[in-house]
Amino acid sequence: MRSVTFVTANTSKLEEVKAIASDFLEINSVSLDLPELQGEPEDIARAKCKFASNELGVPVITEDTSLCFNALSGLPGPYVKWFLSKIGLEGLNNLLAAYKDKTAYAVCIFAYSPSPSSEPVLFIGKTEGTIVPSQGPSNFGWDPIFQPAGFKNTYAELAKSEKNKISHRYKALEKLKSFFLQFSGTE
């Protein structure tokens, strides 16, 4: 089993990652004040991982999540955390009030760096869905307004075990797992 340091201050995210990846990762977590960058999701994920790797000097993974509204050409995207803190779940819904298209997609990007001198490797998971009025517990980000395609419930309404089998985070971690299995014993 590979040991990595997951850089996050979000305890709910840490719990979810441990639940999904415990069969292939031994996760140590560190809360590190990472810079809030602007740009494309892949560029943000890569830069955050490089920063964390340089600061800590150990193998690290970082994670960046985006919620992208198709009617808004992908916004709020990687800035969803800030949108959510400023306008809330209802405000996120209101962003789409003038549009018929309520479809969206959730993207999770894990970046892995075995050392400060390494270029981070990205693992991207994407789940299609729809933005709906808030439903279910509101204790984990925008989960109450994201209804994954093919489901009648939002992420917040799904059992954690069910969400952890279909989510954007799960899909990205499965790619990370495949990478580690493919390169077992090497860095």
What are the segments in which pLDDT stays under 50 over at least 5 consecutive residues? none
* Helix proportion range: 25-40%
What is the fold named in CATH at topology level? Maf protein
Order of helices and strands: EHEHEEHEEEHH
CATH class: Alpha Beta
- How many independent structural domains? 1
Rg, Cα atoms, Å: 16 Å
Note the overall shape.
Answer: globular
Largest β sheet strand count, sense and barrel closure: 7 strands, mixed
Quaternary state of the chains = single chain
Number of helical stretches of at least 4 residues: 5
Strand content: 25-35%
Global structural class: alpha/beta
Mean pLDDT: 91
Q: Strand tally, please?
A: 7
CATH architecture: Alpha-Beta Complex
Span of the ends, CA to CA: 13 Å
InterPro entries: ITPase, ITPase-like_fam, RdgB/HAM1
Binding site for ITP: 8-13, 48, 64-65, 140-143, 163, 168-169
Protein name: Inosine triphosphate pyrophosphatase
Pfam families: Ham1p_like
Model description:
By secondary structure, the chain is of the alpha/beta class. 33% of the residues lie in helices and 26% in strands. The protein has helices spanning 11-21, 41-56, 80-94, 160-163, 168-182; strands at residues 2-7, 25-30, 60-69, 76-77, 103-113, 121-131, 146-148. Strands 1, 2, 3, 4, 5, 6 and 7 form a seven-stranded mixed β-sheet that branches. The longest helix is centred in the N-terminal third of the chain and has 16 residues, at 41-56. The protein is globular, with a radius of gyration of 16 Å. The protein starts with a strand and ends in a 5-residue tail after the last helix. InterPro entries: ITPase (IPR027502), ITPase-like_fam (IPR029001), RdgB/HAM1 (IPR002637). One of its GO terms (biological process) is deoxyribonucleoside triphosphate catabolic process. GO terms for molecular function: dITP diphosphatase activity; ITP diphosphatase activity; metal ion binding; nucleotide binding; XTP diphosphatase activity.
